[in-house]
Amino acid sequence: MSIASNLEALKLETEAVGVQLVAVSKTKSNSEIMEAYAAGQRVFGENHVQELVEKAEALPKDIQWHMIGHLQTNKVKYIAPFINLIASVDSLKLLKEINKHALKSGRVIDCLLQVYIAEEDTKFGFDHAELIELLRDEEFIALKNVRICGLMGIASNTDNEKVIKAEFYELKMLFDGIKASFFRKEDYFKILSMGMSSDYKIAIQEGSNMVRIGSTIFGKRVIKHYKNND
Ligand SMILES: *Cc1c(COP(=O)(O)O)cnc(C)c1O
Questions:
Q1: Are 227 and 13 in contact (CB under 8 A)?
Q2: Distance between CA 111 and CA 146 in Å, rounded?
């Protein structure tokens, strides 16, 4: 299967039913990304700042780049001028740094708050209580150059569909609750990003409206080792 035909098939399950498809292109070459681009894809996700910056410089300017991986505060400055969405905000400290660099670039940067829903304790993100605490924090409320557009979560890496389904259900309930309590009048708070290649069908059933899909589009990744652990 080609990248174009993989995308075509996926679009029927996602964009055709109102779910945004983010093509996760981490570790993939510029020519592979251009194959997806030629097939009409414009939204791409990356999880490594240096790779993201290099690709954004080399590739067409109408690509919308999403940062989907853990972001270190000292790297925010490199992506703040152009990033379309930071989907992996996991602390107030990071949000303040994004706000600072967004202001410098004269921008308001769209962000998703990452919620910890998996069983593994290696994943990043807020738990429910931390999320509520953040949304009530005066320091958070004062940030004017970040716009919270929704939530993101990664389910457990398991074959047990019941576990995955329960985790996505929990995130959807949390999303609805947060929307009603904190963003009732804010139309922009509407993104629920959950689902990747292995679990996007379950995620969509449970109410996801943004899926982040890599290997189903581009094929398996060869694992890359980075020097700085980011
Ligand atoms: C790599 C990655 C994906 C895509 O994973 P696939 O299994 O290749 O679809 C989605 N979300 C995040 C946060 C990722 O790091």
A1: no
A2: 7
Q: Residue 85 Cα, ligand 1 centroid: separation in angstroms?
A: 15
Longest dimension (CA), the chain: 51
Q: Which ligand 1 atom is nearest residue 88's CA?
A: 13
CA distances from 129 to 125, 136, 227 (A): 12, 11, 34
- Note if the pTM is more than 0.85: yes
Joined together, the tokens standing for residue 193 give 């990003």
State how far the alpha carbon of 56 is from the alpha carbons of 43, 133, 175, in Å.
12, 35, 31
Could you tell me the distance, in angstroms and rounded to a whole number, from the CA of residue 81 to the centre of ligand 1?
24
How confident is the model over 76-86, as pLDDT tens digits?
999 999 999 99
Which residues form the pocket of ligand 1, taking CB atoms under 6 Å from any ligand atom?
24, 26, 47, 68-69, 154, 196-198, 212-216
Roughly how many angstroms between the first and final C-alpha of the chain, as a whole number? 31
